[in-house]
Amino acid sequence: AVPLVVAINTSMAARNGILVRDRIAMEEARNLDTIVFDKTGTLTEGEQGVVDAATTDGWDRDDVLALMAAAEGDSEHMIAAAIREAARERDLSVPGTRRFEALEGRGVRATVETELPAGTGESGTGRQGTTVYVGGPNLLRHLGVDLDATLAAFADEAGSRGQGVVYLVRENEAVGAVALADVIRDESREAIDALHAMGVEVAMLTGDSEDVARAVAETLGIDTYFAEVLPEDKDETIVELQEQDRLVAMVGDGVNDAPALTRADVGIAIGSGTDVAVESAGVVLVENDPRDVVSLVRLSRKSYRKMQ
Ligand code: ADP
Ligand code: MG
Known about the structure:
It is found in: Cell membrane. Belongs to the cation transport ATPase (P-type) (TC 3.A.3) family. Type IB subfamily. This is Heavy metal translocating P-type ATPase. This protein is an alpha/beta fold. The protein folds into 2 domains: 4-45 and 184-307, 3-Layer(aba) Sandwich (Rossmann fold); 47-182, Calcium-transporting ATPase, cytoplasmic domain N (3-Layer(aba) Sandwich). Helix content is 41%, strand content 26%. The protein has 13 helices and 13 strands. The strands form 2 sheets. Strands 1-13-12-11-2-9-10 form a 7-stranded mixed sheet, sandwiched between helices. The structure holds adenosine-5'-diphosphate (ADP) and magnesium ion. The site of adenosine-5'-diphosphate (ADP) has 15 residues, from helix 5, strand 5, strand 6 and strand 7.
């Protein structure tokens, strides 16, 4: 028979968006001193957003963004979705295009049917359409396009913050750029602050670059992070922490998180994550809300006190 306290505890957990697959994990949660979060898809939305823009002299940021959104109209790339969303948020009118082409691993090319922005010195020629490219550093190399001082400085700064940069190229000249960053879940900050207040240390684990990891960790107030960790090494990081006599939880969503979820003292999967992650975890966050990790620890601590 299931002890009464545990039964109550499990149904309370369910009401808090927590699915308990392994009751031992729920009990262990009260003793956790370290919680490791996966970055992409767990602390972040797994999407990117446009966070900054720059142009060469004579070009307007909104005109650049509208042209980029136009060229990206038919692309399925995550970067294209972020650029279209940024144009939508700013209520820009996005011109039509023809002859769209995806340049695998580089960007896109399209002919934009619009009048060119004023101040480009070519009014009158724009109506026939103008061919533009949108893409990253690989595209610039491919086209043999150099950056002017403004865009070069913009790219350096964005790079040091771990952001990707995508350029608008017209007539073999880069005329504007946008910086893209991970979209951090609104709830992540709150979850981490609450865990700190409860005396739990928070770490982040990611395969992403050192620059990206540092930027996200700083934004969220996470003091320890492990960057550029290969999928097969994620569980090693958990073991290293356990060897420091810590009781460790891992929170993750991906296939590559599964070994770490299994290895952790408490494995916590994001409900919308992959089946493999969910099946490797003792606890599942049904609402995909990192704040439910806080509820989990709180509930576990509360029921422990009841049992004494
Ligand atoms: P990944 O899966 O690592 O993003 P891709 O091969 O899809 O790799 O793209 C590599 C790079 O090419 C991107 O980081 C970006 O700089 C550029 N790129 C690819 N597709 C697009 C696009 N639709 N719009 C802008 N840039 C793109
Ligand atoms: Mg992930």
